[in-house]
């Protein structure tokens, strides 16, 4: 049969040498690649034991700030949830009862406040939207690795910063030294 075009090429099949039949060139080529990788700089690190330095613009875990008297700043206005493009924030608002003035700053507060860290894209829009400066993304903390999906839903127990001025986040509104001393004295008086 005549080919339609004359571009067909006749290929000579050379017989393989003894070394090629034993795959020796391919084995030595693979070994050389392996040996070269032994001496190369490792691109991976042993996370979470080792951590890379954070970028100056890194936005990490969220924190719900407290005011200078140790009360929660969040008023459950919902602007952070509306601003979140990933819809990772959910909350339930409640009214402050009599006697809870020391716990919550405003009459309304977040009874439940949850952030789904699997959905969060750490864009920081919740931080920008908050009128009470209650939500901040910490630059020095990232979400730790977990095995279960439920563990990535952070509630108030993991988001609200501690009352103690020494354990508070370094982001956002900070206490002056005088305010920190007053809060420490107030906490000591409550413990005594």
TrEMBL record:
Its EC number is 7.1.1.-. One of its GO terms (cellular component) is plasma membrane. [4Fe-4S] cluster 1 binds at residues 74, 77, 80, 130. [4Fe-4S] cluster 2 binds at residues 84, 120, 123, 126. Its cofactor is [4Fe-4S] cluster. One of its GO terms (biological process) is aerobic respiration. This is NADH-quinone oxidoreductase subunit I. It comes from Hymenobacter aerilatus. The lineage of its organism: Bacteria, Pseudomonadati, Bacteroidota, Cytophagia, Cytophagales.
């Amino acid at each position: 049969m005549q080919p339609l075009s004359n571009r067909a090429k006749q290929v000579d099949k050379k017989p393989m040498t003894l070394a090629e039949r034993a795959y020796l060139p391919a084995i030595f080529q693979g070994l050389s690649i392996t040996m070269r990788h032994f001496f190369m700089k490792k691109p991976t690190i042993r996370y979470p034991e080792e951590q890379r330095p954070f970028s100056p613009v890194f936005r990490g875990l969220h924190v719900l700030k407290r005011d200078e008297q140790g009360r929660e700043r969040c008023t459950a206005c919902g602007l952070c949830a509306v601003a979140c493009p990933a819809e990772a924030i959910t909350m339930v608002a409640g009214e402050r009862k009599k006697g809870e003035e020391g716990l919550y700053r405003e009459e309304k507060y977040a009874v439940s406040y949850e952030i789904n860290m699997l959905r969060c894209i750490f864009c920081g829009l919740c931080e920008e939207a908050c009128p009470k400066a209650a939500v901040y993304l910490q630059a020095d903390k990232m979400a730790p690795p977990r095995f279960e999906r439920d563990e990535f839903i952070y509630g108030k127990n993991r988001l609200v910063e501690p009352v103690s001025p020494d354990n508070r986040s370094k982001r956002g509104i900070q206490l002056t030294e005088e305010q920190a001393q007053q809060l420490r004295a107030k906490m000591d008086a409550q413990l005594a």
